[in-house]
Structure formats: structure tokens, C-alpha cells
Design brief:
Rossmann fold, Helicase, Ruva Protein, domain 3, five-stranded parallel sheet, 459 residues, alpha/beta
Length: 459
Amino acid sequence: MSKEKILIVDDERSIRDFLEIMLKKEGYKVASVPSGEEAIKLTGQTSYELVISDIRMKGMSGVELLKKVKEINPDTIVLMITAYASVDTAIDAMKAGAYDYITKPFKIDEVKYIIKNALDRKRLETENILLKKELKSRYGFANLIGTSRKMLEVYEIIKRVADTKTNILITGESGTGKELVARAIHYEGSRKDKPFVPINCGAIPENLLESELFGHQKGAFTGAVVNKSGLFEMANEGTIFLDEIIEMPIQLQVKLLRVIQERNFRRVGGIEDISIDVRIIATSNKDIDKEVREKRFREDLFYRLNVIPIHIPPLRERKEDIPTLAEHFFEKYRVELGKNIKKISKEAIDILIEYHYPGNVRELENIIERAVALEGTAIILPESLPEYIKVRSQELEVRSKNLNLEVNGLDFEKAVGGFEKAVILKALESAGGVKKKAAEMLKISFRSFRYLLQKYGIE
């Protein structure tokens, strides 16, 4: 049965009653009012998928109502009723934004057909919006490549939980592929044909996050000029992915807990409870137990989300997967960049295996993309890898030989300088380019840090 909400506006009671009875039998949620003024009041309180209005009414006309409805919620579809089925009337209504019109006396099958087509179009438009969002943010499943024991355990959990409705908490360092695991769970399960709606809780300003999650009514705050559906509504019957849940403000954690318990919520500034069927998958790259102990994350919400915990291991703990991942990214960027490169050399693979990857799989992908872009021969050589990786490899090699290295002919200044420059670059990367922060991370003065930047020609 359909669950769309329809508002009927007509100053003739017999018309209202006829349409209301017919549409309720079709499974729609129906309300009716005798005037445009009352319709405006209702559409400001409740979001209707479809408004059916007579063109000629006492007071506000149907075309005036149409324009007002579109101002409040541009996504609402409006059908016009007319007993004067002239071309001019229909064209005026269409120009003002009407989807179609129906004529009196009604042909029941025609009315049903027009309404069904209108609502089907609205559903399709919503699905297309979600699809575009999904495709824009989707990485693909490359980050789940690997046959190490730890990754096989992750795959097994995905298979076991995909068809459940249970909430899931995925933990792991940045770049390990937490979102890809969440998508795999969604698309392997019974909700695969329903929306997958992602949101990064740390990327949206605190004052906008509640509206983004739960939507708002027109006039709820400055700038709320129309009714807006939130991501929970858009994810209905599907999955909402709350990335970095630990960044959610404590007052919103209270509201999220209520949503999980009650399975309904209200928009910001709204008075109507909206029921939803949504599976929640959340992630955190922080020690969430510590966040709970230090009262930055609610313990009751943690238990509601952590019904099924999944931990994604860092790349340094599954080094056997590095050659496979490197080959995958090599093929991807060789094709994308149009480079005629045949393979990655064994020496380059050995260096990649030795590196510790603080940025995990995402960092490995960036390294390979850079190497493919810079390589001018038919094989990716160690020279095409970033300096800081080679320095790390040399450092480990020295340790493994207990410092019994051949110093004859070693360019000490170059060796030490290479390591020093690599450390500075890495600190800048970790600090997001903020020099003062990078200096603090390295425990040196800002003046010393500026000197080193000048020394190595780092902009």
C-alpha cells in the first residue's frame, strides 16, 4: 500500500469527499480543506508529496495556491482541477509549475492514472538525487581487496550481518575503508534496492547538522525559506551511514538515541512525528571506549550503535595484501592516465611492503597514482616512489643489519638531509599544511621549522 501524503483543496465538499474516499482506498494518506488559505497553513506544517487543487475557488485561486506551495516546498507536485478545460487555463497552470490537470466530471481511471504517474515521477527524481550523491562519494570496492586472514574475517562478518536490521559500528583508522565496508553490507543485503545515504558528522557545521539529518520546516530558523526533508527521511527503508559519529554534538546524540528507540522524529520546527524504518551504520576512527569514559560520547547511544562491532585492520597489520592492492591501483591509474607502463618492479614492491602507511589503503592508492603519473619508462622503479618511503625502507634495512652498513662512499649530508626533508613534509601533510602545528608536532620551535623549510626549498 502507498504511504504518500496527498492534500485535496476544493471549495465544493462533494468533490473533496469523492477524491478523499477514492484515494484512501488506493492506500494514500489524504487530507482535505475548502480553501487555499487553509491549504497554505497545512503545507507549512506537513510535507505533502502531492496537492490537488481546484483552479477556481473563492478567495485564493488555484494558480495562486500553486505558486505559494512551490515557494514552501519546490518538490511538491501539484495537480489542478478544472471544470473549464480550456487550453488557456491548462497552459497558465503549467507555466506556473503544475504537473498536469484533471477535468470535471471525473473519469476515475484517468484520475488514478495521472496521480500514479505524478507520484512515480517524484519517487524517480528522489532516487536520482540520491544516486548522484552516492556516485559522487563512492570509492568503489577496491579498498576491500585482500586475502589476508584479518580481511577474510571482515568479509565473513559482512555476509552474516548483511540481511539483518541490526545497527553496526565500524571502527578503524582513517583510510582503512570503513565506508566501503558499510556499502558492502548494504548492497549485500535485502535493502540493496533502497537508498544508502552517507553523511560525515564531522564535515558539517554543528548548527546545520540537525537540519541536515532531520530536515526542517519553513521559518524554523533564519534561511529556512522552504520545507526540507532530512537525510533520515531520504534513507527510509534503506541505510543511513553516519561517518565519524564521534564528532556528533552531545545534544544531537540525545536526539539520535530517541530516533533509534522510537523509530520516529520531528523536523526542526515541526510538530508532526515522522516514522521511519532505517538501518544505522556508524563509524569512528577514534578510541570510542575512551570517548565514552571521558563523557564526550553517550554510553547509552554507544550500546545502541555497537550491537555488531566490526574492526577494520590497518594496512601495516596485513602487509601480505600490499602487492595485490598495489597491482590493482597500478592497473586503475595506468588506464585512467593513459600511461604505457607494463608493471611495478620487484624492488619498488619490496619498498612498498616495508612502509608503515599511517594513511592506510588511501595512502597506498595516492602513492601508486603519483608513481604512475611520474614514471617515464615501461616499469615503475623505486625512483618514482616518494622520498619518505625510500628513506623509511633504508632505515629499516640499516636496523636489520645492526648498523653494519658500508659507510665508504656514503654521502652523509645527502642521506641525513633526505630523511630530514621527508619528516618535515610528512609533518606538514599531517598538519594540513599549517606550519605552526607541524612545528609543534616535531617538538621544535617555529623559527627552527621555518629555517628548515628554507633550507630544503619547501614552499
